[in-house]
């Protein structure tokens, strides 16, 4: 044996030995093939990424070296199924970066970012590979392809073009450099937001400063203080702590302090994101223009339902016009109420508005969070969303204990359909912690597909930041938190009910302005008396929620509807302003934000505050030039839910149609066609105004 062969053989033995010890690279022994979270350590990630990239490149090389004429199977399908090891490793790592990170993982993310960018360029700028893809694409009309295969072919070709495959050689180095810098900048943005959020704590040691706070908020604050090694009570910027404090605290100065801390996160100081925002925007402009687009928004919207910035801006304005005057009326009503109840200020600042709007809601509807929370015990709410999935789609969720989890708070459920078919594993991670970013989201550790003739069902995860149990009470949700649970569970159903061969066109792999339809439609059940009285029981007595409270919940559904809508539209307008730039503005991040949002800013502006530096959705998430999609999808869901209202909110025929045409189909067909097939007509924007009670107020 030649010396080089001996070295190669030894290297292979060593690599195989390392792989046997790396739980990211070895086959899972649990019944579902689920991730081995109990064995994964930080030191496993970089070797696993390297191995995954090496395997993926070899698979790409195998496609380009194939002497056979390019066809759908040996090129498009082979590309779709390439890189499975890398996808598995990345799916675990990046999800845990959001849900259970630490400083070491963040350092690892920075180290692997160039590796991942280089691999991405290895694929997207691979001339021989693109030539094969293009050869298949050019004869698409003569191929006998099924609908999902046609979509995969179209998407694959378009993805290459949109990722630089047609760039001249002279631009490829710069494109790669910009892409790598953008990846690192978005990582830095998210890291700073998490660090800035965790850096602030209001430590209350005088019990008189707790005036106005409900018992559950006081208990939670006491527990948080103990966890942080502090005396007294602690208020943080995590929403289950921040939100109730802003609503209920009678101490105006402390509310102002906490609010300013929240609105100046990552603005100046150690975790400053103001220049990171500009860097991200600048890199996106450069990449988009290099690819032949005027702005990043033109690039981002090309494959969305909206198609272009003009449509988005027109849509936002169409909703803004009837909402803005009513939003101002709602603020005026609360101001009048506050003055009638001894408020002496000459205007309602934001840290004042939350407090008085909650007081007004209590007075107007005789309803408050403390009155409702006992009826929304987390465990009952979980059972309720599972029961809803059963009534609509025949699904059952059974908690299991033979699958490892990444944190002790995480629960796992085996999901089956009404015929006993295993549909998915469902991971649920509900409570806030320092290692988790704020907000709520759904994701997947593995997506549904059919590989080598064997179906792989998905591993779906839901992550939230709900109120934790205390020594005195279980985890009790606000009605808003329960609505959030339904929202994220809707995304989960989209993943759980996915059916198809190719993960890139099934499940939640749909245009961004369509993906919120399955989630937002679920929120409607939170206000339906026929549903609420099936599970909402006082955890102390077992008493079913009284009809009078359900009536009040339904009546208060559109409280501050116009104000809330304008707030969402403001974020959408800010997003579009950043991403329709052709060059960086002369103004600072704060000044630019203030300028573009001035026409829709209905509360007094706050000096030194800015939202862009912590706007994770658009600067480190997937909603750049896409935040409008929440409202776009809300139009879809309002129109879609009207069919449930017409036929019955538990109607299995309507649910089956929604499953067959929306949830199971992904983007195997044009989503506009899928929607019309379900609803029988194109979406009606008036449905949203009607739902919000704004159509009647015109």
Radius of gyration: 26 Å
- How many strands in all? 9
Unreliably modeled segments: 1-19
CATH architecture descriptor text of the largest domain: Orthogonal Bundle
Quick one: overall form?
A: globular
Q: Name the average pLDDT.
A: 94
The CATH class label of the largest domain is Mainly Alpha
Number of domains: 4
Instruction: Provide the structure class.
Output: alpha+beta
Q: With helices defined by DSSP (H or I, 4 residues minimum), what is the helix count?
A: 28
The main sheet orders its strands as 3-4-5-9-6
What share of residues is helical?
A: 55-70%
Strand content: 5-15%
Largest sheet: 5 strands, mixed
**Termini Cα gap:** 86 Å
CATH topology of the largest domain: Neurolysin, domain 3
General description of the model:
This protein is of the alpha+beta class and 698 residues long. The protein has 4 domains: 21-166, Endopeptidase. Chain P, domain 1 (Glutathione S-transferase Yfyf (Class Pi), Chain A, domain 2, Up-down Bundle), CATH 1.20.1050.40; 200-263, no CATH class; 274-367 and 562-627, Orthogonal Bundle (Neurolysin, domain 3), CATH 1.10.1370; 373-555 and 630-691, Neurolysin, domain 3. It is built from 28 helices and 9 strands. The protein has helices spanning 3-21, 45-64, 72-80, 84-99, 103-124, 127-138, 147-162, 169-199, 215-227, 239-248, 252-263, 274-290, 296-301, 309-340, 350-365, 369-372, 378-393, 479-496, 517-523, 529-532, 547-555, 561-579, 589-597, 616-619, 629-647, 652-663, 671-679, 686-691, and strands spanning 202-204, 233-235, 396-400, 411-416, 422-429, 441-446, 449-451, 454-456, 459-463. Helix 2 runs antiparallel to helix 3 (72-80). The longest helix is centred in the middle third of the chain and has 32 residues, at 309-340. The protein is globular, with a radius of gyration of 26 Å. The N and C termini lie far apart (86 Å). Residues 1-19 have low confidence and may be disordered.
